[in-house]
Amino acid sequence: MWLSKDGSCLNEIFDDNVVYSECYGPEYRGIRQIIQWFDDWNERGTVIRWDIKQFIHQMNQTAVEWYFECEFAGQISRFDGVSIIVFNDNGKIIDIKEFQSKAEHEFPYGKL
Question: What are the tens digits of pLDDT across the range 63-74?
Fold first, then answer.
């Protein structure tokens, strides 16, 4: 959806009362804000890559490890991240919290 800039299925994925907390501070409450954010972001930005590394499932929660790369307002950004996702009884996302880590790593004591 982010790679194709097609948000037509947002209502199918997210609960009406979803809370989405991005890793750098913004928080969106409700499907209307999610749709507005998606549309606004895609006017100024392009997702270049969003690679999923792994999923960890437990009951109604999923943790997802990923790598993200985008161009936004003329700047390229890339970072690793983790999302903690909670689903309601209907299988829609009701809560997402994102966490970010630098994609470039340093090895102060050398690589083993």
Answer: 999 999 999 989
Pairing status of strand 14-21 against strand 45-58: unpaired
Cβ neighbors of 79 (< 8 A, separation 6 or more) are 67, 68, 100, 101, 102, 103
Q: How far is CA 80 from CA 14, 36, 45, 60, 104, in A?
A: 23, 25, 18, 24, 9
The per-residue pLDDT for range 15-56, each reduced to its tens digit, is 999 999 998 899 999 999 999 999 999 999 999 999 999 999
Outline where the chain has alpha helix (H): 10-13, 31-44
Q: Report the alpha-carbon distance of residue 82 to residue 94 in Å, rounded.
A: 17
- Residue 22 has φ and ψ, to the nearest 5°, of -75, 160
Residues 6+ apart with CB under 8 A from 110: none
How would DSSP label each residue in 11-42? HHHEEEEEEEE-TTS-EEESHHHHHHHHHHHH
